[in-house]
Amino acid sequence: MRRLVKAEILWTRKCPLKCSYCGMVDYPFEKAPTEQMCEGVRRLAKLGCEFAAIYGSSPLWSCEFEGLPEFVRECGRQGVLTTVIADGVDKQSKEKVALLYEAGLRSLTCSLDADPSQKEHFADKATQVKAGKGLELIRWWKKTFYEEPIDAQLTATVTRRNWRALLGAVPMLSKEGIWFSFDFVHPDRGQPGTKCKGTAEGLRFESTMEDMLAVSQFASELWKLKEEGALIHQSSEYLRALFEQPGLVTSLKWMCNRGKAFPAWVTVDADGSVLPCDDFWTDRSLKVWDLEEVTLEAFGRLYRKEVETKCPGCIWSTHWDAVQIVDGGDGFEHYAHMEARQ
Prior knowledge:
- There is one protein chain.
- This protein is an alpha/beta fold and 342 residues long.
- It has helices at 34-46, 68-77, 93-102, 125-144, 163-175, 209-227, 236-244, 248-251, 293-310, 317-328, 332-335, 338-341, and strands at 6-10, 51-55, 81-86, 107-111, 151-158, 179-184, 265-268, 274-275.
- Helix 3 (93-102) links the parallel strand 3 (81-86) and strand 4.
- Helix 2 (68-77) packs parallel to helix 3 (93-102).
- It is globular, with a radius of gyration of 19 Å.
């Protein structure tokens, strides 16, 4: 049976923040009913999916939260590990996270693009607010539910402005038992279905010697910290690839269809559509509650070609590592932070 390393659940496309490098596109479709999304989880579990990352935009925001505890509970019933990726901006974030904990959530991920007290590291006021609220929420999570084996992670969008500050934060976060994860900023590249209309002006790494050395240094220092035991989500293989080929960050030529099994994961949009990722799609006809082996095979055949001919490429770390897990058959335990959940 096909192994799906994970499912990305795009619970909502609505967000109160206006980060300049994001520019989230709210497509005009209705959210799927919670009961249908729960049926989708049952279908995913039958296909070998053991982990779901639930995110958005902002899944704790306003009425977008509705149905999420029920969905998390169903994931638990199906043996699917979950993390919810939140920003902490909603005034009731802590109360909502507590409800998710009661529903079985044991992993929370928040944003931290740099030290929120140092505004020069940020793209704009929105990213600074997001970082401060995220750090506050993740520390509250660790403090409140410390008696249970919970998992906590902060994830960053790495830019030319903040990479040094992020490196400095990793040892501190590890001492607090908080994982660090990241991806590199990129502008809208005109790909079909992109959720991002931001420009990343002045933030993206360019093909200059200075920037390539910066990427290589960032990767090598994280690699060293990871070997010393720091809680870094990205695999050593990914960090080594960046160290040796920093141009991957600017060329964006890596394709997720290069693995032995494609797809290694699926993205499920808020209306239930199954997509290859949240930043590229050309067809929305498959819904998660209709997912089974034969439809996933057809989806893979369609999108393998679509990715090859129409996707501009990326270097998203969680996608890269998912393909490596499918190809190599190991690494899932670290990918899902199972050591933190014991």
